[in-house]
């Protein structure tokens, strides 16, 4: 097994460890009284909007990126496809989700078919460092809380530049390094530093400019993200346990510890959260 295979296996082990994810999701929805044959994309948002701020953060990012009907979007590391289905349903985009975790790809595709959205949202299992798409294919390259697991960000963003059309946009909502020291683990994106690769915002900003991107929007939303975590923690405490339908279905039984670590990392300035849009000339 070469190093790339080792890395892919480690990512798959982290995110794909919860077994039959589609069945877990559908069973939980049915237990809540949902008709699993008449689901909407918003029914899935507690589990498929896997980032700070939830579905509202995705809507805000879509507006920043000026996603409009017919926009061709590549969702890099798009997981179960929550943002992709939002972009298709509310903004009229066509979206391809590219993800390294096979369980996310198969489950996301199955859920999309169940929602009858597979005419506008498709899934590809693949590596963001070697994107299986021709040059100048997409209008928007989109990532939300995906790049924390990617070490070679130079290659990642070079690939994004390659597959974007001239005049297109790179849009992201990402966790980056903070000034308060290394993160606490286990975190939602990693059990330990072996698959956690956070860079400082300044370094990412410089890298993108060096690659030829032109900055259009740069918003530090760390404070807002911490507030969101605090609200989520208060709700969990009031409920005296994990929600019947939430990210615990994806992260597993140690969800509470991972979620608490993320909030602590924000509070101690060990991580930061950035929303940004960069133009590809």
Summarize the structure.
It contains 11 helices and 7 strands. The protein has 281 residues and is an alpha/beta fold. Helix 4 packs across helix 5 (82-91), helix 7 crosses helix 8 and helix 9 (222-239) runs antiparallel to helix 11 (255-267).
Describe this structure in words.
By secondary structure, the protein is α/β, with parallel strands linked by helices. It has one domain (3-279): Rossmann fold. It has 11 helices and 7 strands. The chain has helices spanning 3-15, 21-31, 45-48, 54-64, 82-91, 102-114, 153-163, 201-211, 222-239, 248-251, 255-267, and strands at residues 72-76, 94-99, 121-125, 138-144, 164-177, 214-220, 271-279. Strands 3-2-1-4-5-7-6 form a 7-stranded mixed β-sheet, sandwiched between helices. Helix 4 packs across helix 5 (82-91), helix 7 (153-163) crosses helix 8 (201-211) and helix 9 (222-239) runs antiparallel to helix 11 (255-267). It starts with a helix and ends with a strand. The mean pLDDT is 94.
